[in-house]
Amino acid sequence: MRFELWISWRYFITKQKERFISAISIIAVLGIAIGVTALIGTLGVMTGFGNQLREKIIGANAHIMIKGDSSIYEYKALGEKLSELEYVEAVTENIQGQASFYYGNKTSFVFVRGINPETEMKVTKIKEYVKRGKFLIEEGEIIVGKELANHLGLDIDSNFTLGSPITGDLRIFKVAGIFNSGYYEYDANLALVTISDAQEIFGLGDSVTEIGLKLDKPQLTAKLKTDIASFVGPKYRVKTWMDVNKNLLSALKLEKFVMFLVVALVVLVASFNIASTLIVTVTKKIKDIGILRSIGARGLSIAKIFAFGGLFLGVMGIVLGVGGGLLVCYIIKNIHYFLEIPQDIYYFDRVPVAFNLQDLIWISTSAILICFLSTIYPAWRASKLNAIDALRYE
Questions:
Q1: Global pTM?
Q2: Residues 226, 232, 233, 237, CA torsion sign
Q3: Three-state DSSP class for 137?
Q4: Of 14, 247, 334, 340, whose CB neighbour count within 10 A is largest?
Q5: Contact call for residues 39 and 322 (beta carbons, < 8 A)
């Protein structure tokens, strides 16, 4: 093995007299580097987008939601029982529904959530998102998202009319707070009122539509869903935040996989340069191959020499690509300092980037495999050269 590695190193790294071979070797390395850089940059953005989206969704929602076939009247007793479970960190109750906003000559349909501020801030992070005004609202007060406030022209202490979808009655609310989650869908479509106001708006009496749970181990949400469903019984429907956003999360996974395949084609195309380099080298080194065969080198050893050469070039490209990819991720992560990103199109106010070690290992392994496959034919061709014919070549 040392013999093959030494010969391969001299052929492809330290002793390339032929300028043409040297040039296509450099092109091969740069091709792999560009492909790996593109892969790391693309998947970095996709991973960052997915992570930030999950963070925003979890931040504004409970880990697990419990709903009844209609309204839940015994929500206080059920909440107390659920809070006694060892894996439940906090419990809150809320009401979900849509209503109409009227301010001046502007109208908007929004998603209204009735909350108990004292328990809501223990389950979600919405309190942290309130950048202006207060979170601990009272009856007749409302918290709106930043984008919704901008759309309607609302500010702290602004009074506007909210229309009930059940009775058609109109009520005047005062803006007590404005939140900014960084996720456009919430900032443009969500408003928070007290439980009592929501009960009146939606005609629910002394009931709620949902009980939310925060778990002490969020990573076990899917597993604990089954335990909680057994605990509350068939009378209630139990869903996780992942169930509620199943289509969105599935689309993110599929998009990331498709992007990986598309950008991986760049590495695949670049690997043909490695194959070309090896084929040209085999042609240029026929006499050397003949000498090696005449002194006892087996065909497998000859094949290893050229396979190692291709891998040397591939690994050099991958190392450069990893460095370039990390640099690209850093640049993209800080691009918001000089580039404004339209939040209504991209959901976030900046490009999210996340470095994932698992993705890096997967990219590097895939690139090495592609490079190795590109060496098979040239290495096989070199191993089949006859010693006598090779020595007669020149």
A1: 0.72
A2: negative
A3: coil
A4: 334
A5: no
* Whole-number pLDDT of residue 113: 94
Quick check: is 7 in a domain?
yes
190, 212, 234 — which closes off a domain? 234
Element (H, E) at 135: none
Show the domain range for 130.
Answer: 70-234
Q: Are both 222 and 100 inside the same structural domain? A: yes
At residue 387, the pLDDT reads 52
Taking residue 199's Cβ as centre, other Cβ atoms within 10 Å add up to 19
The predicted structure's pLDDT at residue 269: 81
Q: And the tokens for 185? A: 């869908």
Q: Structural domain tally of the chain?
A: 2
65 located within any domain: no
Residue 307 CA from chain centroid, whole number = 36
Domain identity same for 50 and 89 = no
Using CB atoms within 10 A of its CB, is residue 389 exposed (0-12), middle (13-18) or buried (19+)?
Answer: exposed
Burial class from Cβ neighbours inside 10 Å (0-12, 13-18, 19+) for residue 61 reads: buried
Regions in the chain scoring below 50 on pLDDT: 20, 390
The reported pLDDT for the residue numbered 290 is 67
- Using alpha carbons, select from 85, 84, 77 the residue that is nearest to residue 225: 85
Residue 17 has a pLDDT of 54
Which amino acid makes up residue 332? I
Domain stop point among 211, 234, 257 = 234
HEC profile of 187-249: HHHEEEEEHHHHHHHCCCCCCECEEEEEECCHHHHHHHHHHHHHHHCCCEEEEEHHHHCHHHH
Q: Tokens 């084929």 sit at which residue?
A: 279
Based on its alpha-carbon atoms, the radius of gyration of the chain, rounded to whole angstroms, reads: 31
CB hemisphere CA count around 273 (13 angstroms) = 24
- The counts of H helices and E strands in the chain are 16, 10
Residue 64 included in any domain: no
pLDDT in tens, 176-211: 999 988 788 889 999 999 999 999 988 888 999 999
Residue 241 is assigned to a structural domain of this protein = no
Same domain, 160 and 291: no
